[in-house]
Design brief:
There is one protein chain. The chain has 817 residues and is an alpha+beta fold. Among the domains are: 216 residues, 3-Layer(aba) Sandwich (Glutaredoxin); 135 residues, Glycosyltransferase (Alpha/alpha barrel), CATH 1.50.10; 94 residues, no CATH class; 87 residues, Glutaredoxin (3-Layer(aba) Sandwich). 44% of the residues lie in helices and 10% in strands. It has 28 helices and 25 strands. Helix 10 runs antiparallel to helix 11. The protein is globular, with a radius of gyration of 27 Å. The N terminus is likely disordered.
């Protein structure tokens, strides 16, 4: 969310009592003792794109201005279970033990009287007239674990919290609507944000102070969490009216500042200008040596890469187009070779703590795997480079093996931390993934007969993947010493150079490396595994549906397409409420592997609808099974009813009628995930061309117009929405294949289309069923027939079709014109 200056002006105009200082829109009484800045670490996992997270900083140091509490608040100093084996019955059990979320369950035995987000907690706060302490995180968040261990498991702090606050714990992935509201507050008042998020609310849910991570005790001039709690309790007693009124004033200002709407005089912004500016902004932030954008910490940002490939596709003859493609392919190659890519067990870690993609934050997120699978297969389409196809398969192999439920759904994430050994008492970052040189030598002692100098498997592997006796992680990447002496695998040489170095053929080296990686994977499988978040989210499953459908279509892999269809069936069975006609946001793996639901299921949010619709459209174009298009159209209708802003255009992120959600937000940031509005802009356009409903095209234009100011000023914040704007400018091609679905000539034409990256198109198989859904929605199909009894392709644009072709080579030429 881009923060506007209007809320600052609004607060600046508010009268501040002479004996108070401003803190997050609240007033804290001054005293005569030196005042100290409360430092809060912003950290962990998936952060909004405009707030870089930073992982392995030393605990509780204020370096690099990474510690904040909403506007550098100043306090006067006048006066889990996670990471350890639980060998004894829990001393404490709270309400979270009844919850399904793995994150909430992690806190079920804290000495804190935690409540889940809900009416019981709200009623208690009002009846007892207590402020609310809201703690938001997620199960694979490293610093969430740290704060639990340091503060929430502390008996004294637990008693202070339970006696003086109504304590609510929220899984941000389970309740993104709650997270967005209070993260907006924290970011607006501190210029930063992250998880764990800590916010104090009035009984009517209005925030008056917030931050992220707090150390448990005072450190030098930095007050600890206990001190913060005591000062808030004091101010709640003596300054309550000021707290409440100023908190209200902040929220009123934020409501105005975050409003996004189309004005009567606004028109669709120029796609060419916006796309050119987006390219320039990305080129300015591009890092030449290793690819990617900005310096460490460095995130994969698939939304940026997909924009650049789309920009190249319509600017192939220009120097800018060539540069966009070079930036993309170099970034993807360097990520594939780097330590952010798991060379033993596949998949990608969350981000790199250095600029060279070497030492990652080891957490693995489902949404990263989904988007990177699509980015890599798209790179294969545009380049023909086999590496990219192999990486896309690699990602889907990891997801199928480690993140899949037997019913077809996908789990959310794998943690970064795990026990180094079964008998260890503390988890460590990356313990599951790293290696010592001694381990490698012990495991890979066999000599390779064809290699020069009697080289062993270990010699070859250590050379190729940069394994060193002293470890290959620099101290600045490991301030806590968790990776001392360890190696994070990173490809240091091409297979050609490594093969030449050891006198091997490339084929033989490839065989050796594959065998060694498989052996190491077996060894890793015997290590204590990291925590697996088995929550299954409709939105992220929708992204993964796209991944399997898109890769399966390009590679012509029926196994991948069958897995995609299994996911769609899972979504329909477990995350669609047929009676209520709405999506559900989440479901859970039970103790016996069955799919479970909470007592009060969480209704779907905008992202759930948008990402699933997009996945279903990709699945339809990959399999030509019309039921998926029909369901996509039904979901789009329901999305329009639930989230469309009839006055200002665009979609709200959540139900605007929910009284417990204080801000009606429209996400205007394509970050770790694309925004629901960006995805919807393209969904509406695709559906319009697939069903003939012109109002969906008009709605897409209205949506883009609502975001025109953002698109014109900072298109780099919305690269996926820029792609939607470009699609309107260039108009979608309708590629229609007339033929029998399983006939060889039909599949050859479809394979030709799928081999090319054509970002602005829809693919339709016209099988002659004039009574079917497609023919009824698109009457023009009845006039398109096979030529000379052969499968025939028609390429149509702007209601005009080119001459039909029956030869794949001719179709390829036509599509590349």
């Amino acid at each position: 969310m881009m923060l506007r200056s209007c809320w600052i002006r609004a607060l600046a105009s508010a009268p501040i009592p002479a004996n108070c200082s401003l803190i997050s829109g609240a007033f804290f009484k001054k005293d005569t003792t030196p005042s100290l800045t409360v430092c809060v670490k912003r950290n962990c996992g998936h952060t909004p794109a405009h707030t870089d997270s930073y992982h392995r900083l030393p605990h509780c140091t204020a370096s690099q201005d990474r510690f904040r509490i909403c506007g550098a608040a100043r306090f006067s100093m006048a006066s889990g279970s996670n990471g350890r084996e639980n060998l004894h019955p829990p001393k404490h059990t709270n309400r979270l033990s009844k919850e399904k979320s793995p994150y909430l369950q992690q806190h079920a035995h804290n000495p804190v009287d935690w409540f889940p987000w809900g009416q019981e907690a709200f009623d208690k706060a009002k009846s007892e007239d207590k402020p609310i302490f809201l703690s938001v995180g997620y199960s694979t968040c490293h610093w969430c674990h740290v704060m639990e261990r340091e503060s929430f498991e502390d008996e004294e702090i637990g008693k202070i919290l339970s006696d003086n606050f109504v304590c609510i714990k929220v899984d941000r992935e389970e309740r993104p609507d709650v997270d967005k509201v209070y993260m907006t507050f924290v970011q607006a008042t501190s210029q930063g944000g992250g998880w764990p998020m800590s916010v104090w609310l009035t009984p009517d849910l209005r925030p008056f102070i917030g931050g992220t991570y707090f150390p448990p005790k005072d450190l030098g001039r930095r007050p600890g969490f206990k001190t913060v709690l005591m000062r808030i309790m004091e101010q709640w007693q003596i300054n309550r009216e000021v707290l409440e009124s100023s908190g209200q004033r902040v929220m009123d200002a934020l409501q105005k500042a975050t409003a996004i709407s189309a004005h009567a005089e606004e028109t669709l912004p120029s796609a060419l200008d916006v796309a050119h500016r987006c390219f320039q902004q990305l080129a300015h932030s591009y890092e030449e040596e290793y690819g990617g954008f900005n310096d460490a910490p460095k995130f994969p940002t698939p939304v940026n890469l997909m924009f650049l490939m789309s920009y190249w596709s319509v600017n192939r003859a220009s120097s800018e187009g060539a540069e966009a493609l070079r930036m993309t392919l170099h970034s993807l190659r360097m990520m594939a070779l780097g330590g952010i890519h798991d060379h033993v067990a596949q998949g990608f870690h969350r981000y790199s703590t250095d600029s060279s993609w070497h030492v990652p934050h080891f957490e693995k997120m489902l949404y990263d795997q989904a988007q990177l699978a699509v980015a890599y297969i798209t790179a294969y389409q545009v380049s023909g480079e086999r590496l990219f196809a192999d990486v896309s398969r690699d990602v889907l192999h990891y997801v199928s093996r480690d993140l899949s439920h037997q019913s077809g759904g996908f789990y959310s994430a794998e943690d970064a931390d795990s026990l180094p050994m079964a008998e260890s008492s503390e988890k460590r970052e990356g313990a599951f993934c790293v290696w010592t040189a001694a381990e490698i030598r012990d495991l890979l002692s066999n000599t390779v007969a064809e290699a020069t100098g009697g080289a062993t498997q270990a010699d070859i592997f250590m050379h190729h993947y940069g394994v060193k006796d002293q470890g290959n992680v620099q101290p600045e990447q490991d301030p806590h010493g968790e990776l001392q002496g360890q190696n994070v695998l990173i490809v240091r040489y091409s297979v050609e150079l490594t093969a030449a170095h050891f006198g091997l053929s490339v084929n033989k080296l490839t065989e050796v490396l594959a065998s060694v990686r498989a052996k190491l994977a077996d060894v890793r499988g015997s290590r204590p595994p990291p925590h697996l978040d088995t929550k299954m989210l409709a939105s992220w499953n929708g992204l993964m549906l796209s991944g399997f459908a898109r890769v399966g279509a390009v590679l012509g892999d029926q196994t991948l397409l069958q897995r995609a269809e299994q996911t769609a069936q899972f979504l329909r069975k477990h995350l669609w409420d047929e009676e209520g006609q709405h999506m559900l946001h989440s479901c859970y793996r039970g103790d016996n592997m069955e799919v479970e639901q909470t007592a009060s299921p969480i209704s779907g949010f905008l992202d759930d609808y948008a990402f699933v619709v997009s996945g279903l459209l990709d699945l339809f174009e990959a399999t030509h099974t019309v039921q998926w298009l029909q369901w996509a159209a039904e979901l789009q209708n329901r999305q329009d009813q639930l989230f469309w802003d009839a006055q200002g255009s665009g979609y709200f992120c959540s139900d605007p009628l929910d009284p417990t959600i204080l801000l009606s937000l429209k996400q205007d940031q394509d970050g770790a995930e694309p925004s629901g509005n960006s995805v919807s802009a393209m969904n509406l356009l695709r559906l319009s061309h697939l069903t003939g409903r012109q109002e969906w095209m008009q709605r897409s234009q209205q949506l883009l117009t609502a975001f025109s100011d953002r698109l014109l000023k900072v298109p780099i914040a919305l690269p996926d929405m820029v792609r939607g704007l470009m699609a309107h400018h260039y108009t979608l091609k309708q590629i229609i294949i007339c033929g029998q679905p399983d006939a060889e000539d039909t599949t050859s034409l479809i394979a030709c289309v799928n081999s090319l990256f054509i970002p602005y198109k829809v693919l339709i198989l016209a099988d002659g069923n004039t009574e079917g859904f497609l023919y009824k929605k698109l009457p023009v199909l009845s006039s398109l027939i096979q030529q000379e009894g052969k499968a025939t392709a028609y390429v149509c644009q702007d209601f005009t079709c080119a001459l039909p072709v029956t030869c794949p080579q001719e179709l390829r030429r036509l599509l590349l014109e």
